[in-house]
Specification:
alpha+beta; 6-stranded antiparallel barrel; globular
């Protein structure tokens, strides 16, 4: 799609339309052969109801002040389990937050020196934790359609470093794959 500026469209409107077109394309695309790395991570594992996930992200991010740490990258989530019980969904979740320096692990927070994904497929979406299942299904359908095999679990990377207070955010979903067929 090529956008043209005409007499009735101001430059700001043009930029807005081109930005929306660009974001729409970003949200719809799968990217192959992606590499993602982060260093000096704070790891926090727990179980949480799906409705409280944003509150948990805020809690962990705010706890950094107590540990005298600063966020130095994008927040990464992974889910180890999903329990459905009496109309509630409970997730086993690991939150990884890149911080500005190494620190000593505690009972709650564990230091991880490096996080690295190689040869991953990524998919960007705009939504909240209720959209994770849909994003997961789309990503695994893409992997299956292209004869690939997932070799890691899914990782959700929050694209906004500034805030986790909003319920709806841009997320990138990553899974490392093996393209070999034997």
């Amino acid at each position: 799609m090529f956008l043209e500026i005409n007499e009735r469209m101001c430059y700001r409107e043009f930029l807005g339309l081109s930005f929306l077109y660009h974001m729409r394309r970003q949200i719809m695309e799968f990217l192959e052969r992606q590499f993602y790395t982060a260093k000096n991570l704070l790891s926090y594992r727990t179980r949480v109801e799906s409705s409280d996930l944003n509150n948990l992200l805020c809690y962990v991010k705010n706890s950094l002040d107590v540990l005298d740490l600063k966020v130095n990258g994008k927040i990464i989530l992974s889910f180890s389990e999903k329990i459905t019980e009496k109309n509630k969904q409970i997730y086993g979740v690991e939150i990884l937050i890149p911080v500005d320096r190494e620190f000593e692990s505690t009972g709650q927070y564990v230091f991880k020196p490096t996080f690295k994904l190689v040869n991953a497929i990524s998919y960007r979406f705009y939504g909240n934790c209720n959209c994770f299942a849909e994003a997961e299904a789309k990503l695994f359908n893409y992997i299956k359609a292209h004869d690939m095999n997932a070799v890691t679990g899914l990782y959700y990377i929050l694209q906004s470093k500034e805030t986790v207070h909003n319920d709806v955010q841009y997320w990138d979903t990553y899974v490392a794959v093996n393209e070999n067929i034997v």
